[in-house]
């Protein structure tokens, strides 16, 4: 720990650096060209229930809404929060659903079911509960 005064307690000194180091340029900046490629996303393994045409339409509609609100391409199994979603985005999604005449979505449900597919399943379950 060179550079630290001798009177500095060990609890104030930074922890030892990790065993690996990041590749640096001659200027001391990160050399992004020498970094390993990012890990490929793992395909989701989910038990899918048989879908109806209405569910497919709702999935397509919600996917479009999420893409518009979040500003990124969205797949039905993408996680809302991993795509950069937050509470303001969730409110905007709810408003977009209401504007299109679709079932309302409570923010709590979006937090519990953070993918388009899970959200659609939740909305369909709510609709069936209200009909009976």
CA-atom Rg in angstroms: 23 Å
Helix content: 40-55%
What is the fold-level CATH name, i.e. the topology of the domain at 53-131? Non-ribosomal Peptide Synthetase Peptidyl Carrier Protein, Chain A
> Strand-residue fraction?
under 5%
Nearest-integer average pLDDT: 77
* Cα end-to-end separation: 70 Å
* Count of separate DSSP helical elements: 4
CATH architecture of the domain at 53-131: Orthogonal Bundle
Write the CATH homologous superfamily of the domain at 53-131: ACP-like
Oligomer: single chain
Category by helix and strand content = mainly alpha
Q: Sketch the major β-sheet.
A: none
What's the CATH class label of the domain at 53-131? Mainly Alpha
Order of helices and strands: HHHH
Which residues sit in consecutive blocks of at least 5 with pLDDT less than 50?
A: 45-51, 128-132
User: Which word captures the global form?
Assistant: elongated
């Amino acid at each position: 720990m060179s550079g630290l005064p001798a009177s500095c307690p060990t609890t104030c000194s930074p922890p030892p650096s990790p065993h690996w180091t990041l590749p640096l340029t001659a200027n001391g900046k990160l050399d992004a060209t020498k970094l390993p490629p990012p890990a490929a996303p793992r395909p989701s393994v989910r038990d899918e229930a048989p879908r109806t045409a209405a569910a497919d339409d709702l999935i397509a509609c919600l996917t479009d809404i999420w893409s518009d609100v979040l500003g990124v391409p969205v797949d039905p199994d993408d996680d809302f929060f991993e795509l950069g979603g937050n509470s303001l985005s969730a409110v905007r999604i709810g408003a977009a659903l209401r504007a299109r005449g679709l079932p309302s979505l409570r923010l709590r449900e979006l937090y519990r079911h953070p993918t388009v597919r899970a959200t659609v399943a939740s909305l369909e379950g709510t609709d069936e509960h209200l009909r009976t």
